Amino acid sequence: MRPRTLDEVIGQRHLLGSGTPLRRLVESEAPMSLFLWGPPGTGKTTLAYVVSNVTKRRFVEISAVSAGVKDVRAAIDNARRELGMTGRQTVLFVDEVHRFNKAQQDALLPAVENRWVTFIGATTENPFFSVISPLLSRSLLLTLESLTDDDIRAVLRRAVSDERGLGGRATLADEALGHLVRLAGGDARRSLTYLEAAALLADDITVEVVEKAVDKAAVRYDRQGDQHYDVISAFIKSMRGSDADAALHYLARMVEAGEDPRFIARRVVIFASEDVGLADPTCLQTAVAAAQAVQLIGLPEGQINLAHAVIHCALAPKSNAVVKAIGAAVGDVRRGLIGQVPGHLRDAHYPGAAKLGHGDGYKYPHDFEHGLVRQDYAPEQVRERRYYEPTTHGAEAPVAGRWARIRDFLRGSDPS
């Protein structure tokens, strides 16, 4: 099912559209040097094959997992010989190029520099960290993106109908198609492997056939339907109820069903402030770090970072004081309790501010004992309103005591 032309390639529209660098390179006769960087199953090897096929160039593939300097030099020598004898150019494709050490990558430089080959390196790791600068600077870096669900769906439908695939000899039920899409996780190669395994068992491919072929149960989960809202609701409420096991169950359910991990991470970050707050200030740090990790590495490894944050959130002492505080403050503002900013707190830096009395009488807290000084901070309309009412849970307990003493002092009572 490997595409034969650029137009047959599914996905990567940002690389394959009219006028893109890859299109221009393929349409020219000059040798080129490319790095294709992206997750597994996004079409790196496919693009290399297509470039070779479209440009009628000889294709030589080397795997950096097993090849050494000797293999690289032999491939380059053969390419030079072919170019000199027949004038035919060679596409030298190096898969997993990030696995080459510096000496092995250095061996590629003369061929790239002298245009003896069209070099294409495929990598799943950031080439700025794994590829030597001289080689990277002489190459065009193209970043491939994970295929969307619609892309995987198109790959599978083509495989069912195309003569190079199942040629219409099997039917694929809609639910089975959806299950295969979820299992693929944006990896076209994986989706075709699972489809092939299912087709070996039956011509009528149903969810049950796919489950049997892949040995993985289908998770009934519609990302736009009731299951999406029900499961995420149960997930949040399980963390709020401090049941780490239940929260992990719902996390696994969402991950296995193909839910966007970034959506899950965002919910955990919100929870860290909404339901934990200052009862454990480190909870938000963990949640944000997990969200960044998921963005950086994706799935499946990102589920470990999510689980880390979920367990932390579930077991942390709980406080909803933060969300209640901002809710009350916003409620007052919406009801019109705004008032003027006290004159002594207004900006006094711009020319003319002093003539307006801005900043007059402001007391600088650092000049006073304990960094506290009694003066009005809030507008008169809300001066006696109380928004933040801390709990005595976890790390918020000492905050509650300190805030009570500070508030009493600022409102006119002497601190105890």
Question: Any overview of this molecule?
Answer:
By secondary structure, the protein is α/β, with parallel strands linked by helices. It folds into four domains: 6-143, Rossmann fold; 149-214, Helicase, Ruva Protein, domain 3; 226-315, Zinc Finger, Delta Prime, domain 3 (Up-down Bundle), CATH 1.20.272; 321-410, Orthogonal Bundle (post-AAA+ oligomerization domain-like), CATH 1.10.3710.10. It is built from 19 helices and seven strands. Strand 2 (58-63), helix 4 and strand 3 (90-95) form a beta-alpha-beta unit. The longest helix has 18 residues, at 69-86. The chain starts with 12 loop residues before the first helix and ends in a 6-residue tail after the last helix. The model has no long low-confidence stretch (mean pLDDT 87).
What labels would you give this structure?
single chain; 416 residues; alpha/beta; Rossmann fold; Helicase, Ruva Protein, domain 3; Zinc Finger, Delta Prime, domain 3; 4 domains; five-stranded parallel β-sheet; two-stranded parallel ribbon; elongated
Quick rundown:
With 416 residues, this protein is an alpha/beta fold. 50% of the residues lie in helices and 7% in strands. The chain folds into four domains: 6-143, Rossmann fold, CATH 3.40.50; 149-214, Helicase, Ruva Protein, domain 3; 226-315, Zinc Finger, Delta Prime, domain 3, CATH 1.20.272.10; 321-410, post-AAA+ oligomerization domain-like, CATH 1.10.3710.
